[in-house]
Amino acid sequence: MHLSQLIIGIIFIIGGLALTVVAFFAGFFVLIYGLPLLVFGIFILLNKKEDVVESIKKRGGKKK
């Protein structure tokens, strides 16, 4: 896992949790922002596809 992936995932999760808690006191419309942030944060932390480096196939020579 890359450091940037970890940092952004944690920031999104904390922001999502904070907005979800605020939604119970301020208004439920804040959940529109809080829940997607929480889901994206979890997805970013659990995404392992970006850790795999794809091989580049070399085709042909130089382009002119």
Q: Describe it for me?
A:
This protein has 64 residues and is an all-alpha fold. The protein has a domain at 3-46. It is built from 2 helices and no strands. The N and C termini lie far apart (39 Å). The mean pLDDT is 85.
The major beta sheet can be summarized as: none
- CA(first)-CA(last) distance: 39 Å
Q: Give the SSE string.
A: HH
Q: What fraction of residues sit in β-strands?
A: under 5%
Helicity range of the residues?
55-70%
- Let me know the number of strands: 0
Kindly state the mean pLDDT as a whole number?
85
Derived from helix and strand composition plus strand pairing, the structural class reads: mainly alpha
Give the C-alpha Rg: 19 Å
Shape: elongated
Furnish the topology, listing elements before pairings.
Blueprint: H1 3-25, H2 31-46
Features:
64 residues, mainly alpha, 2 helices
Summarize the structure.
The protein has 64 residues and is an all-alpha fold. The protein has helices spanning 3-25, 31-46. Helix 1 (3-25) packs antiparallel against helix 2 (31-46).
